[in-house]
Each structure stands twice: as C-alpha cells, then as structure tokens.
Amino acid sequence: MNAPAAGNAERDALRRRMLACAAVAERLAAPGDLSTLGSRMLASLSEDVDALAVYLSRTDQDLRLVLQAGCPQPPPAHAPDARALCGVAPCVAAQEGGACIVALGPARPAWIGARSAALAAVPFDGAGQERRGLALFMLRQAEHAPSLAALLELAAHKLSQALERDPAPLQERSGADGAKTRVLLIDDEALLVAHVRRILERAGFAFHASQSARAGFALAMAIHPDVILIDKVMPDLDGIKLLRMMRGHEALRTVPVIMLSGQADETARIAALGEGADDFVVKPFSAKDLVARIEANVRLVRVRRDAVWREGELLRLRQSQRELRTLLDTVQRVRDDERRMLAREVHDQLGQILTAAKIDIRLLQDRVAHPERPPSADAILAELSAALKSVDLAIAAVQDIAALLRPPELEAGLVAALRWQAADLQRRTGIACHVLHDPDDYVEQPPFVSGELLRICQEALTNVLRHAGASRVVIQVAMRRASLLVRVCDDGGGIPRGRLHDAASLGLKGMRERAASIRASISVYGRPGRGSMVSIRRRLAYR
C-alpha cells in the first residue's frame, strides 16, 4: 500500500472510530438490563470488536463475570486474575490503567474462539470497590492504533458508568443467572415478526428480529443469541443456505436453530435437520408450542455446555494435581539439596576451621605441659593468634550459613534485603545490579510477605544467572494504584514464550506458588534479544 492510500485508510479508521465513540455514548445513555447493555455496546463497536466480556473485582475477591456479548462460548464465571482468564498476561499498560492490545496465538482459551486476532484488556474504576473491574474486547485485527485504544478506553468508561447506574447489586454469572434468554427471529413477514414478538416478550424472552437473511446473520454475530428462529423461504437468501452459513461459523455453530416453514412435507424437514437445524416448526404454530420448543432447546444446550465445562474443569483439576505432585517432589528435592549443601558447608568449612583451631590449641597445650621446655612468650602469642584467626573464620562461616537461611537485612525491610541481594549478586558475578525505590511512596510489608517477595526475586535473579546472559539487572519497588509493584528486569536474551507455561519450568511454578501464598499476581514477560521482566503486584488490602 502506497503512502497516500495508507493515509486515507488511517483517516477512514479514525473517522469510523469517532462515529463509534458517539454511538457508544448514545446507546449506553438509556437504561437497560445487562443483556441489552452488552448488545448495544457490541453493536456500537462491531467494526473492530467481535465479542466482549466485563468482569468486576473487589480487593478481597477474584474477577467475576457480569456481562458478555458475542463470545463463542460462555466465559468463565470466576477467575483469580487476567492471566488465568485469557491465557496471556495483560501488559504493563493495562496494569497501570491503560488499554493493552495483545495478539492471540493458537494457545487461547476456548471461550475466546479462533476468529479473533487480538485481545484488548482495559481496567476501569467506578465510584466504589464494587464497580472496579476489567473489560475484555476480542478484536478483529491485532492493531495498536491510538484511536482504537482511545475508543476502547471510552467504551470501558461508559460501561463502568452504566453499571454504576444499576441500583440493584450485580449478581454473579452462572449457567442460569436470571438473565433473559435472547431469541433472534429472521423472517421477512412483518406480521409474523410482530406476532412472535408479542408471544416471546410476554413469555419473558429478550426478542430481536431481522427481516433479511444477511442482516440477520450480522445481527446474530453481534448479539450472539441463545436461540435463532429462521424462516425457510426468504427473498435475499434461502433459509437452508443461511443455516449452512451459521453452522460453518465458529461463533454460531453451537447456537440452537429452529427452522420455521409453511411446508409440512417430510423432505423439507429432513433437509433442515440434515443441515444442522435443532428443531422444525410448521406454520401456523401455537404460542405454547413455540415457547416450549425454545425452552427445551435452551435447556439442552445449557446441559451440553455444562457437561463440556465440567469436563474441562476436571481436566484442569487433573493437570493441577499433576503439577502439585511435581511441585511437592521438587520442594522435597530442593530441601534435600539444601540440607546437603548445609552439611557440606558445615563439614568442609566450619568443620575444617574448627579442627585447625583445635590443633593449634592442642599444640600450645602440649608445649605448656612440659615445664622443662617452656615456650617463649612470643611462641605462645603466635599460637594463640593462629587459633584466634581460626575462630574468626569459623564465626564468618556461621554468619554465611545463617545468611543463606535468612538474610539479616530482611529484618530491616524488603528494600534493604533487596539492596543486600543486589550487592551480593554484583560482588559475586560482576553483573551491574541496581535497586530503584522511592522511600516517600512506600508501605512496608509484613515479615512473611517480605520474605516471600525476596524469595521470588532471588529465584528471578537465579534465572538471570543461569539463562539470560545479562550484563545489567534493575530491581524496582514502587507503589501503583494502592498496590505494591516489584519488578526484576534484565537486558539478557529474553525468556522464550514457550517456556512461560512449560511443565519443566519449575522455577516459574515455584514463583507463582509463592505469589499465590501472599495473594499477589505475578507476570513474566520476555522478548528475544530484549531481555525479560518479572512483575509482582500485591494489593495493600491483602496485608
């Protein structure tokens, strides 16, 4: 694409997103239930966004789903953090309050689906703790345009405002959460549409309609209904072809479809069911029959989804059990290694030093015990001096062993212990290591928390020594949005993405386990040739 064409495309995208900003503000101004809210938002962002999910969090709870639209499968109702929810860690911009766009690879959660190219994470803060959360947008393209980031941040802000206007407390989502069942009717007969609308709205359904096949397909992609009713004969596209399109698209593949037809012959029924229709209703139909068929298909799909979800949870539980067994074996092996190391230090250093001191003292005792050959004062002083040197070496060895078990600087706080660790690393390896810290903006952590944070940083520094080949390391301790943030950054080769969740990466698993023990989140980033970063975030309310 040449420069003028690229400029025109950029201006068109900017103009389109400005119109989307106006649409977001307009459509979310009117009150509505959560289902309508999600449909309105997705319709406003349909040029860039395939689906969205909104999670709320409190300082003492995990993320909980309150709103979703367009997702191929229901998103998880709960998640401990964004990494567990999305399969990727939102970048630093998202953690600090900005929009972050992350390209999605093949290893993505099933609820996101395969059609989205990128995931945008936008945190938001409402008037109170109940309205703090994270908005996730599944994007059609992995684009990092400032106009797109601004649009998504505005959308998240408007969503938070709309949620704040809701006087009723937001309930946690589940398979049957009380939200209205969304029904989409695609039929070109206006009278039939009006008739079905009265039936379904009276029965408590959220009703949507389209009077053309292609517009109905686009609307189905935007609102992701629970049930779709399709007329078999329409002017722009045959109902069977429309059904075939839906069954060929991942987002609509599992949505139950009921075919409506004025033809009661067996051939039409077999053709519809053969293309993937879940049910076949002959016109004219009774209101009770239509409502019963819709409810039956919705129940069946929910049962299937619950079975799939339980199977997935069972697989994840088995995987967690295997990882736990591996971690326990690793912990035991590390303990044995530490015991052997301590025994070796005591035997090779402390034992030899004390043995040398004993020999010096014994020689002096033997010489003093023979009065016929009394030693001179200089000889006695020399022997005592040698013994004292051995005792000093023994004391130093004991201090080194004690420092291995628990750094004495930890008693002075986390920052002091990190400075000691950085100085020790620089002394032993020659790698420049610095600690950045603002003492005016820091809240000291409890001793157990400081100890776990120090162990995580020690493991990160060990990984730098083993794998990174770095020449410089920076440890940052800062406060961000009422949270403690600790980062360990290096300029080495960068950790490969495939190793972030590798079962053999026991060091990373150990760091995550330590972070979980103090209710902190940990993220690891790395780019080939551009270094790595380990980021630990802990809310102060968790103290």
From TrEMBL:
**Residue ranges of every copy of the Response regulatory domain listed in the record:** 182-298
Give one Pfam hit by family name: HATPase_c
- Keyword terms, alphabetized: Kinase, Phosphoprotein, Transferase, Two-component regulatory system
Q: Which CDD domains match?
A: HATPase_UhpB-NarQ-NarX-like
Q: Does the keyword Chaperone apply?
A: no
Q: Which residues carry this modification: 4-aspartylphosphate?
A: D231
Name listed for the protein in its UniProt record: Response regulator
The record lists the organism as Massilia suwonensis
